[in-house]
Amino acid sequence: MTEPNQRTLINFQKAQFLTSASNLSQCPEDIGYEVAFAGRSNAGKSSALNTLTGSKKLARTSKTPGRTQLINFFSISDQQRLVDLPGYGYAKVPEEMKKQWQYHLEQYLSQRQCLMGIVLMMDIRHPLKEFDLMVMQWANSCEMPLHILLTKADKLKYGAAKQALNKLQSIIGSYHNPISVQLFSALKKTGVDELRVKLSGWLQED
Ligand SMILES: Nc1nc2c(ncn2[C@@H]2O[C@H](COP(=O)(O)OP(=O)(O)O)[C@@H](O)[C@H]2O)c(=O)[nH]1
Ligand SMILES: [Mg+2]
């Protein structure tokens, strides 16, 4: 076992597509460590995953959001996985499908033993939508660590981005689960190292 302070950064470039699941029973065996990526459609989730792993197409980015309805698993090693949860909140997705999605998400989130934390992506210009609050409250209620990426930070001037970050930091102060927030831009590659450090802590044994 490695000492916590000797932990090395995980090489996220090793991430490879493993499998897709439409429900909990199709997920890979519940062993090792997993981190799940959640966000409303178009929040920049695929772009963040691609930036993290240094891949241009690991998780498909799309200008027509809401297409992916599956839970996608990427393995870094046989004990470490990244999980791309289906997008949510796309207006053209029928209500029934949203309910189905929510059901499978809740199943996954509440029953997955290897889940070490959730990365929640929010467009810095449109944070704290209904879906975001749902994930934040869920994580809080079961003390699941949560890390928020304020994505597309390049869309704001630095001062405005910093202000958005501070505002969210003061809001999450009232949550009692481990929760953190950072600026992120897939376009400018900002915040990538901070994310790698966070995930390396989650995905390795104490
Ligand atoms: N300016 C800017 N645009 C971004 C960034 N990340 C994603 N986008 C754009 O936002 C849209 C949605 O991104 P995508 O990663 O597919 O979002 P997803 O639906 O959450 O997976 C695409 O048009 C991306 O090019 C970023 O850091 N900066
Ligand atoms: Mg996507």
From TrEMBL:
UniProt keyword annotations, A-Z? Cell cycle, Cell division, GTP-binding, Magnesium, Metal-binding, Nucleotide-binding, Septation
Identify the domain of life: Bacteria
| InterPro entries recorded | G_ENGB_dom, GTP-bd, GTP-bd_ribosome_bio_YsxC, P-loop_NTPase
Annotated SUPFAM superfamilies: P-loop containing nucleoside triphosphate hydrolases
Q: Which Pfam families match?
A: MMR_HSR1 (PF01926)
Q: Which family does it belong to?
A: Belongs to the TRAFAC class TrmE-Era-EngA-EngB-Septin-like GTPase superfamily. EngB GTPase family.
Role noted for this protein: Necessary for normal cell division and for the maintenance of normal septation.
Protein known as = Probable GTP-binding protein EngB
> What organism, scientifically named, is this protein from?
Spartinivicinus poritis
